[in-house]
Please model this.
Amino acid sequence: MIEKLNTPIYVTQPALPPLEEFTELLKQIWDNKILTNNGPFHRQFENELAEYLGVKYISVFTNGTLALMTALQALRITGEVITTPFSFVATTHSLWWNNIKPVFADIDPDYFNLDPEKVEAAITPQTTAIMPVHVYGNPCKLEVFQRIADTYGLKLIYDAAHAFGVKVNGESVLNFGDLSILSFHATKVFNTIEGGAIICHDEKTKQRIDYLKNFGFADETTVIAPGINAKMNELQAAYGLLQLKYVDGNIGKRKAIADIYRVHLQDVPGIRCLPDIEGVNHAYSYFPVLVDSSGYGRTRDEIYEELKRHNIFGRRYFYPLISQFPTYRGLSSSRPDNLPIATKIAEQVICLPIYPELSFDIVKSISEIISSYQNPSK
Ligand code: T4K
Model:
């Protein structure tokens, strides 16, 4: 039997760069007194990030939510946008803050990303764009979405908040669609404390995004649009530069943890882990497992509570569905009978702790708690 752990284990814990290295960069900021507004670290960070990720143009932001909101402004999206209910609320909130009507479509049962067939069926004359999410960093069906977008003349904006560093056949997942958005929040694979980015594919779009994140200023006296203040400051950009040196090692540790969970949970009846996808370089941002109570003998919520009793705090990302929150539940696309797969997955999923400093012994203990808690006779 596994005892209750002395220190709480959360779903994640941020990886930080060595403090001494950060202090060195802080000294430079203290000397030159440039704190924000496209300073030297901001410029260097964008360049090095673009190179690391294998993308052409990137614009860094205060956070992922403002990046999403600005992306919609950059492409002048209006009317209706088809999106997923199985995500963090920020995906849909970004539409709402832009006065755009979200239209929810169901997800696929394998990796829980938007189902392209359901998206196509939801298109109306008001639809202007599709906003899929690479949930847990597993890539959406990229070619199929592009074909639908091209056929119907729609924009394609990927919420890639979970997909830092993810590649498909050697190509960054961020190079697909019109725009992709990253989050560098403390809970993400790569963090700048808070932060985010928009990835685009041409210089003009990058220019427009950069104007928009700086109030719309094109020069000292010209404001080209009602922009917002969403710039990343120099401290975060400097911190981000350091993070780039360590991110590969951190992803390697995440992979090792995912492998241990998979080995230890593979034979537990009613428990499903998501396998890696062939040709994809994963970043292991989350470790979701599905609990089928008919095989396991207990529900997802019972496992969630049992882990808590051991001082382990998994998270039910993404339950409830966004479509169930008060702002959105009145929409006709929010009806559970329109979203049967998302409804089912939201009831079954729990994300287990995964982060670079998590010890392998604790990963094994968590697996053991889940394995010994099953009750197949039920
Ligand atoms: N699109 C998608 C698909 C997203 O998942 C997100 C964010 C966004 C867009 C928006 O991006 P940002 O605007 O956030 O850049 C967290 C995060 O706040 C959020 O960034 C993230 N998705 C979402 C999935 O998770 P919470 O409310 O679950 O986080 P919280 O504070 O409960 O943290 C979870 C655990 O992590 C804590 O129990 C302890 C640990 N933790 C957390 C923080 C903040 C630490 O150890 N240290 C920390 O500093 O939302």
